[in-house]
From TrEMBL:
InterPro entries: DinB-like (IPR024775), DinB/YfiT-like (IPR034660). This is DinB family protein. Residues 15-171 form the DinB-like domain. Gene3D superfamilies: dinb family like domain (1.20.120.450).
């Protein structure tokens, strides 16, 4: 199975997880925090929304500008791409501080956050489909916090999906803690 197809399946699963396991929770449950300095489920989703607001348009532009020629459907990795992916890989349990404007801590969030996440996932699915006709090796996606540096299109797509997977696991851990507390 191609990497793009795997990324598409993962993104679809994340969308399904939110739709079936998180969307039906009450606002109090969605805003539950395991500790004062941790993120709620909505804060996890808002963090991902903030990244999607930047990366979805940046990826759309990169894919559009690098399609129509010879497609390079394999993802190859630069040093920076490998490092970026290692940081967000869900298996990496080390906590990382996020840049201030991407930190949703103590934001006033509601159901619109969930809906926005689901909309971004639909957009990401379209981008992953369109990427099959692009040169995934092309360095064309500026890094959000330092836009002079660029990721390859394939690296950026993988970064977005792994980052979402990492924070979805975080949101599901919050839900599990909430359920433990409700039982106790």
């Amino acid at each position: 199975m191609s990497t793009l197809k795997q990324l598409s399946q993962t993104a679809h699963q994340l969308q399904e997880t939110v739709a079936t396991q998180l969307a039906q929770l009450s606002l109090d449950e969605l805003n539950f925090k395991t500790s004062p300095d941790s993120w709620s489920i909505l804060e996890c989703l808002e963090h991902l929304n903030r990244y999607s607001r930047y990366y979805n348009p940046a990826l759309a532009t990169a894919i559009e500008n690098n399609s129509g020629g010879a497609a390079v459907p394999e993802i190859t990795y630069s040093w920076m791409g490998r490092k970026s992916l290692e940081v967000v890989r869900p298996q990496n349990t080390k906590k990382h501080k996020t840049v201030k404007h991407m930190n949703p801590a103590n934001s006033d969030l509601g159901r619109a956050t969930v809906e926005e996440f689901l909309q971004h996932q639909t957009g990401l699915q379209h981008l992953l489909q369109r990427a099959a006709n692009a040169d995934l090796h092309k360095k064309a996606v500026p890094v959000e916090f330092f836009r002079l540096m660029k990721l390859r299109i394939g690296e950026a797509l993988e970064f977005v999906v792994l980052h979402e997977e990492r924070h979805m696991q975080q949101a599901l851990r919050v839900k599990a803690q909430l359920q433990k507390q409700e039982v106790a």
